[in-house]
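FW: tagging you since you asked about this chain on Friday. Here's the raw sequence from the shared folder, copied in full. Didn't touch anything.
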Amino acid sequence: MARYTGLFKIAASVSSFQQLLGEVLESCNFNIVYQTGDYLMARENPGKVAYHQLVTVEVLVDQTTTTDDAVQMQVVLKNEELPLKIDNHCCQTYNRVNQAIMDARQWRLIEAIAG
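HL: got it, structure written out here
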């Protein structure tokens, strides 16, 4: 199973964060499957790759460090693909999602740590 993680701290209103994050993920070809105040799960839209290559994104919001105007989140992308190549589909998708989070106009990136 391929698995890639990243940690981001962004300047955004907590009240609008979930909606903004959903828009960013939808722009990367994901559908929101489940969402609560501190957790979001999205799945890649099928059709472009084999089923075992479809990527799932989980976003965990760290409530202990979140303030009214800054959110820290851990992003985990994974699929059932064995990462036999360095540049596999999950890695490519991870890079695309990371870039979308860093470049999003909806917020200002404070810190990004790739794992």
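FW: The longest strand covers residues 2-11.
HL: agreed, and The CA atoms of residues 23 and 64 lie 24 Å apart.
FW: great, closing this out.
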